[in-house]
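Re: pantoate structure - here you go.
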Amino acid sequence: MQTHPHIADLRRALANAGRIAFVPTMGNLHDGHITLMHQAREHADVVVASIFVNRLQFGPKEDFDKYPRTFENDCARLRDAGVDILFAPDENEMYPAPQRYHVEPDHAHVSILEGAVRPGHFGGVATVVLKLFNIVQPDVALFGKKDYQQLMVLKNMVRELALPIEVLSGETVRAEDGLALSSRNGYLSAAERAEAPRLSRVLQHIRDRIVAGDRDFLRLETEAVAELSAHGWQPDYIAVRQRGDLQSPRGDVPLVVLGAAKLGSTRLIDNLEI
Ligand code: PAF
């Protein structure tokens, strides 16, 4: 695997590379990321991954400084997964001067759910992803469904800005007890780790009820919030939404149930398509 910290070298390495599949990450890789790398291989001649912890998408009180950085380990995992090229810029390479031009996603898409709790987050994600797309110029880009709203925002960005990139998604990878894999799971204490799968269980229950014909979404959401709260969580939202734009369901459309809640000081998110 070639590793390039500099944009110019990466561009040289990718000239005439054939079809490029790209998986952007912030590192601290887990099996969810590795599954995306394998999926990428099926779509391209060259698989490019990036590792960059993007300051723009963290709020002032969020965990940018303590976000886990495990570069050596990540490189070994990418090598094992057969990734051809790693782009690993430092902050100075990506943001040599303060970034003054930003992507501003549709307010309706980013003022809800994660965006309501993390103002500015999706603008920061969209800005760095557009910049990474311009650097790597991939044919295909892959993102996990675990960050469902991020995937929705990026798909819309690519469509509305007519970027010549196909966005593909990977299923959420889970531990045996159902907990969605996430870089932030490492923050959990042993007791919190044992409690953490409850989030996926309440989503699963809502999915089962809806599949069985229950359409009282508000009651299902309220019951799930109550159950999490009763077990020491601080829920931000449990919400049944239409998949395409994550607005409240109107008519008979494909649905997804999304949840976010804090357990101790760790905030977990998850979702299930229905
Ligand atoms: O999902 C992530 O890891 C990040 O949000 C991304 C897409 C790499 C942008 O920094």
